[in-house]
Amino acid sequence: MTGPLDQTTAAGAAPLVGVLALQGDFADHQAALGATGLRSRQVKAPADLRGVDALVLPGGESTTMLKLLEVEGLWGPLGAALHSGVPVLATCAGMILLARHVENPVQRSYAMLPLTVVRNGYGRQCRSGTFALAVESAELPAAMSGTFIRAPRVTGVHGPCEVLARRDGDPVLVRQGQLLAAGFHPELVAGHPVSRLFADMVRAYVRRREASAFVGR
Ligand code: GLN
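Above: the input record for the complex with glutamine. Below: its predicted structure, written as tokens.
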């Protein structure tokens, strides 16, 4: 049985993660994925989505990504892949692409996470930096920090969505089902716990898929 993305990862091969690579820090994500033992592939065109077990939406400039998604004919195919149920890690601009409401200014998004985000909500580049987070999940170490670069600020959570970590009371790491979104950049820090958490989600997803394919045989 094949999944919605025709996953074909051979038994024993490391899961393959598609990393949106139109703009932004996709190379840092590929390095972070590699460090957790996962394979990755740059996604620049619809055909690149075929066979991926998970997806990453990197940091960068969400407005530029929106334009390039249209230009490359990827808006629809990427949306279908995001809705296919595979694990997704979205960081910073990636989180903006998934939020239901985007402000400063209002812009289009996939609206899959019940969040309102304000772009550059922590101020300009000079206010960027690494900050200690308040961790609310037992799956993560209590002492964890996040690097914020012209980051979106989550100002509203409108539906069921786990908040895994906060900064100054505002959610900065959320999860809904297989969607994991951070306002900061775990991919910039070697061995960041969020990179490990995502790798665990991907491996668990592939194991479940293989188990149900075996039952269905
Ligand atoms: N400020 C960027 C945006 O609005 C996000 C910044 C980032 O991804 N580091 O898209």
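Notes for the reader.
The pocket of glutamine is lined by residues 59-62, 92-93, 96, 119-120, 149-150 (CB under 6 Å).
Helices lie at 26-35, 62-71, 75-82, 93-98, 193-215.
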